[in-house]
Structure formats: C-alpha cells, structure tokens
Amino acid sequence: MSKSKKKKSNSTGTIALNKRARHDYFVDQKFEAGLALSGWEVKSLREGKAQLVDSYVIIHQNEAWLIGARITPLLSASTHVVCEPIRQRKLLLNRREIDRIIQITEQKGKTCAAMALYWKGNKIKCEVALVTGKKDHDKRDTAKERDWARDKERLMKHSV
Fold this sequence. Notes:
31% of the residues lie in helices and 34% in strands. It is built from four helices and nine strands. The relative contact order is 0.23. Strands 1-8-9-2-7-5-4 form a seven-stranded antiparallel β-sheet. A two-stranded antiparallel sheet has the order 3-6.
C-alpha cells in the first residue's frame, strides 16, 4: 500500500502579500475582488508562485484591471500554452465598488493598490485598497512605532 501525499496547506490561505505597499502607503479603504484567471495561473497560485511587488489597479472603461502582478508559470502545467507571467488581469468588482474607486482616485494623492492574494474557499481573491502615499518622515515614524511596540512587548515578557 502506498501512502498518499499530504497537501501542504497554508493556514491563513494567503498566496502573496504586497509588503512594499504597506510600507509606502497609508491604507484608507479595502475591497475584496475576484480575479479572472486561466488554468495555468490557478495551478501556479496553488504552488505559491505569485508576486505583487510592483502591482497596482487601474480603471479602464468602467472595468478594474490588475497590472504588474507576476504569476510564474509551472513547467509541467503550461506545456501547451504560451504563458505571459505579467499580464493585465481583470478584477471582478461590483459596479458600486468600481464607482467608489473612481470617485476616490480622482482626488489628488489617492491611488488603488493590490495588497494581497488569498484563497477564500476554492476561489482566489485579491485584496484591493485605496491608499495615500507616505512621506519619508511618515515612514520613519512608522518604523519608530513598530520598534517601540516590539521593545515594549519584550519588557512585558521579561517582567512577568
């Protein structure tokens, strides 16, 4: 009897995070969007082959598009198709959500960024956020607050 392989599963269901966006932007509002993907992309995402580092969201002809996300094709899954790792992928949002994004991004200093890719049941979702850019002094303040929180946690741990 052969033993079946156990699937390696991520407990949170997170496929990819855009840590750079959290560093460079203040997050104002978040939306959950579906993704229109092809078969080889889903197989690659199951293996965790995604990057959101330079990705962003644009609205073109009242449709939302994810630009700059890289999904690396698997050699075994994409033998019969020509794969494009960085391509525009359609985001599936409600009309009200798209209108809200259009309204807010027309303001100065506001943009829309992809923050995370994750599993929700058997569907792949993209967390899209309306963000405002940080200045250098804001980034320093965030780093100071993070360091102080870490030091405070250490002090509380050792005092008990």
